[in-house]
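Re: that chain you flagged

S.,

Sorry for the slow reply, it's been a week of failed gels. I finally had a moment to sit down with the sequence you sent. For the record, here it is as I used it:
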Amino acid sequence: MGRFPIQEQRTVDIHYLHPHHRSMARALVGGGLQPGELGVMFGFSPSQVSVIINSPLFKAEVARIEALAEYNVVDARAELDMLKGRSIEVLAEDLHSKDDRLRHASAIDVLDRTGHPKGAPMQKHKHVHGHLHAELEKVGKMDQRELYETVMGLVEEDEDEEEGLGVG
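Prediction finished late last night. Pasting the structure tokens below so you have them in one place:
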């Protein structure tokens, strides 16, 4: 008995990229589809998909699409950094606008971005003056009503001073 003759491996290849081949390449690169999904999507059998995606022309098309996508990637952070300067200029112009609503909105926007968001409670600071130290010695001897009146008097003095200075 003799051996079976060795049959030549036949390779099937595509010789032209049709529009549906290019669509398949875009779907493969952009959508991350698997070969089986490509077959279902484009109506090809698994063996047809295998022939197409292993074709040198198809591989070259995939490489071209990937290179094009990589070239067109925009670095959003770099773009925003380049726009920062002009954005600050525009906000400054808005703050000097004659339109009250625009000035108000711009001021709120600046405050929000600098850590003072709209609606945050404003803190009112009361300054303790030196004469309070003298009063502290008397505190131990005061009854509750006298202590309350003294503290309220000091707070009222502080508020009067702030109003006189245009603060608050």
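What I noticed first: The chain has a mean pLDDT of 76.

Talk soon,
D.
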